[in-house]
Amino acid sequence: MDDQRSVDVGGVRLAYQIWGPPDAPPLLLLHALGEDAADWEAVVPALARSRRVYVLDLRGHGRSDWPGNYSLELMQTDVLRFMDALGLGSVDLIGHSMGGIVAYLLAEDHPQRVSRLILEDVPVPRPRDQTTPTRPEGALTFDWEMVLAIRRQIDVPDPRWLERLSHITAKTLVLGGGPHSHVPQDGVTELARRIPGGRAVTVPVGHLIHHAAPEAFTEAVSAFLQENCRPAPNHERGHRP
User: Fold this and answer.
1) Which of 1, 156, 169, 198 makes an SS bond possible with 111, Cβ 3.0 to 4.6 Å?
2) Per DSSP, what are the bridge partners of residue 18?
3) pTM, to two decimals
4) Could you tell me if residue 36 is inside a domain?
């Protein structure tokens, strides 16, 4: 059963949930743009069988604060402060779409804090055609100003994000959604290629892999996490299948 809490991370209060045995290795989940912790409900119970799972609402989303100041770098800082506040030294980290960008930024800048990295259908940080999103009608569970700010960064990413992918030391699994995803899959493959030891696996169900194929998602994630718990022989380290 989940435990819903919140914590202050430098003037911004983040809501989060905890699942799984208290003494199990920590696994942190970061959602996509416009989602929140509830987005992971289909896969968290399976992941929590062997992990202490922490599921955040990032700033501007869900029950976390909507401070009006937004960037992917601020979200990265929030996550790092969240880990510090809860005494989490090094974690396994899963990020979907926007959450995956936050995840690899953290792994680039603080490689010692990320043991294993799983990126679910995350775009490679290259400029793309800019479009103006249309605000949905009615009440939102996220701050629309946050969407506009983050979309601008995703459309025109900082060139250093791409350059620093080679700084990631975490064993990394990149899951692509295949031809039905709106994220260009050649970019997903490139993302895996640029991360040392990165591995790309396609689950051809579209962008929302953990929704469309929760069993395939949890099987791929669990196998990867268990595999990396066992140190590989020296001649196998850094091997990229």
Assistant:
1) 169
2) 3, 54
3) 0.93
4) yes
